[in-house]
Every structure is written in structure tokens, then in C-alpha cells.
UniProtKB/TrEMBL annotation:
PANTHER family with a match to the protein in the record: NAD(P)-BINDING DOMAIN-CONTAINING PROTEIN-RELATED (PTHR48079:SF6), PROTEIN YEEZ (PTHR48079)
Native source organism of the sequence: Glycomyces artemisiae
GO molecular function, one term: aldehyde dehydrogenase (NAD+) activity
Protein name in UniProt: Nucleoside-diphosphate-sugar epimerase
GO cellular component labels: cytoplasm
Source organism phylogeny: Bacteria, Bacillati, Actinomycetota, Actinomycetes, Glycomycetales
Domain of life, per lineage: Bacteria
């Protein structure tokens, strides 16, 4: 069987980390993006049937790390997923979906994979629909698929994330690092290379198929603890602040990006903690990057970019 692993969205934060992890493990990689590039790059628009078919052809495993623009999830994600599923079905590949936690809606206590898809907001319902489509295709025997779910992520190349501009880019520039939400509640954060390690593990283990997995993480810090670690890595005290609900509502009147945050504010006003017990029981204790090391590497990347 071929050892070709295709990464859809290979120039994005998660996709590029997955491609790096695959190369480090010695797999052949097809790095798929709209513009291609690199020795293992392929230019393809995977939102179209033709582009998705070209991306998936001949691959043993497909890592779906691409997604529509954040504001367009409700309108575009289901159709996008249908194109990818059809291509995976034709190619006979296995599918690993890079997923998140939006479908659960407001929660109490640590989040396990058995939670219902209770989100009522448009983005949460879009993510629930996508997960349901993939798992239904698996049950029907059309594809073999697994989903790997992560919380808010950070890391090198992590630009389009709640932690990138407000925390790391700000700290790298010596400006105020802002935690979005209540800084005194626990909030699981995922480091991009650790997400990639988890997703590639799912790709290498066929017994993972047929369900969603919470990718392994370290103990959740509070926002205040996380910001303190950022400033420790930066080499000294800096300015920290929180963007709380009242400020979000006020800024959202004039800033559409900030306004979008209100839809899922329940992820920011209470403990938001991932339970990764199932993954650890199935695949063993993971190799995770300590928070301090991960934060230092992320800050160095943002400083280099500046």
C-alpha cells in the first residue's frame, strides 16, 4: 500500500504543522493548497470536486486541515465537506479531520467525546453538521474516518487564532497582551505541533476510525497564568489585560471581527477544559510540549516575523 499522506490546507497553521510531523516520521507527503509550492506541494482547490479528487488520488491517508473563512462556516462548510468526502470515497483513502469543540455548545465540567452536539449558534451548528456528515459516511461504509478535536491553539504560524494577535503578536511588540474572556477561569489551550502529533497518530492507527477523539493536552491554565508564562518567556514583566464581555459588546458595535466572538462567548466565561482520557487509553501517553517551551517557541516565531 502507498505511504502517501495528503494534507489539505497545508499552508495553514494546522496543516503545515501536520505536514512537518509527517515528514519527521518519514512519510511521503503531498502538501495541498490553492497555490502549491515546495517539492511536495500540489496546487488544488479542494472546495471543488475536481480539486478535491486531484488532492486525494492515490493517498493512503487524507488530513482535512482546510476550512472556509471563519465568518462563512455556516454557508460553506457542509458543501466543502461533501466535496472532500466524495473524493475520499473515490480514492479509497482514510480521512482524518482536524476538528474543534464548537459543536458542544455551553458545557459544565470537563468535556468528553460523549457530549451531545448542543450548540445552537450558526458556527456551532455548522461544525456539528460537518462532524455528523463524516461519521455518517463512515457508518455507511463510504469512507474510513476519524476526527481529532483541539481547543484554542497557539504556536509558530498560528496567526488566525484567538491567541495569536491578542497575546503573542502583542507581547512580541512589547504591547499589552490581552486575554479574551474571563482570565480567572481554566481554559485548555493546544500547541500546534502537539495537535499535529495527535492527528498523525490517528492517521497511522486504523483502529482510530469511526469516532471523534479529543487530542491530548496539558493541564488547563487560567488566562492569568497563561499571560504570566508569556511574559516570563519574554524576559520580564509586561502589560496584561482582559477583554471581558462588556468590552466585547462595545467594540463589536464597530469591529465585525470582535462582534463574531459574542456567538461563542460561553467558551470564555466559564471553565473550558478538555478531557483527553480516551486518546491516552487507546494510544498511550502522548509526547506533549511543556507550556513554557511551547510559549517560548511561539513568542520567538512572532518576534522573528515582526
Amino acid at each position: 500500500m502507498t505511504d502517501l499522506h495528503a494534507v489539505l490546507g497545508a499552508t495553514g497553521a494546522i496543516g503545515s504543522a501536520v505536514a512537518d510531523e509527517l515528514r519527521a516520521r518519514g512519510h511521503r507527503v503531498r502538501a495541498v493548497s490553492r497555490h502549491g509550492g515546495g517539492t511536495d506541494g500540489l496546487a488544488a482547490d479542494v472546495t471543488t470536486p475536481e480539486g478535491a479528487a486531484a488532492a486525494c488520488e492515490g493517498a493512503a491517508v487524507i488530513y482535512q486541515c482546510a476550512q472556509p473563512p471563519y465568518a462563512k462556516w455556516p454557508e460553506e462548510f457542509p458543501g466543502f465537506t461533501d466535496a472532500v468526502l466524495s473524493a475520499v470515497e473515490r480514492s479509497g483513502s482514510r480521512l482524518v479531520m482536524a476538528d474543534n469543540l464548537y459543536m458542544y455548545g455551553p458545557v459544565k465540567g470537563p468535556m468528553g467525546e460523549d457530549l451531545p452536539y448542543a450548540a445552537t449558534n450558526p458556527k456551532g451548528r455548522a461544525r456539528a453538521k460537518v462532524a455528523e456528515m463524516i461519521l455518517a459516511a463512515h457508518r455507511e461504509g463510504r469512507v474510513r474516518a476519524a476526527l481529532g478535536r483541539a481547543s484554542d491553539y497557539f504556536g509558530p504560524r498560528g496567526l488566525n487564532t484567538i491567541l495569536g494577535p491578542t497575546v503573542f503578536a502583542a507581547a512580541a511588540a512589547g504591547k499589552t497582551a490581552r486575554w479574551v474572556g474571563d482570565p480567572d477561569v481554566l481554559h485548555t489551550v493546544s500547541y500546534l505541533p502537539d495537535i499535529a502529533t495527535g492527528l498523525v497518530t490517528l492517521g497511522e492507527r486504523p483502529e482510530a476510525d469511526g469516532r471523534a477523539w479529543h487530542l491530548p493536552v496539558l493541564t488547563a491554565p487560567t488566562g492569568t497564568e497563561f499571560l504570566d508564562m508569556v511574559w516570563d518567556a519574554a524576559g520580564g514583566p509586561g502589560r496584561s489585560a482582559a477583554l471581558r464581555r462588556g468590552m466585547q459588546l462595545a467594540l463589536g458595535l464597530v469591529n465585525p471581527v470582535v462582534r463574531e466572538l459574542g456567538e461563542t462567548w460561553y467558551q470564555r466565561d466559564r471553565d473550558w477544559v478538555v478531557d483527553d482520557t480516551a486518546f491516552r487509553a487507546a494510544f498511550g501517553e502522548p509526547r506533549l510540549t511543556p507550556h513554557e517551551e511551547a510559549i517560548a517557541a511561539t513568542l520567538a516565531w512572532f518576534r522573528g516575523r515582526a
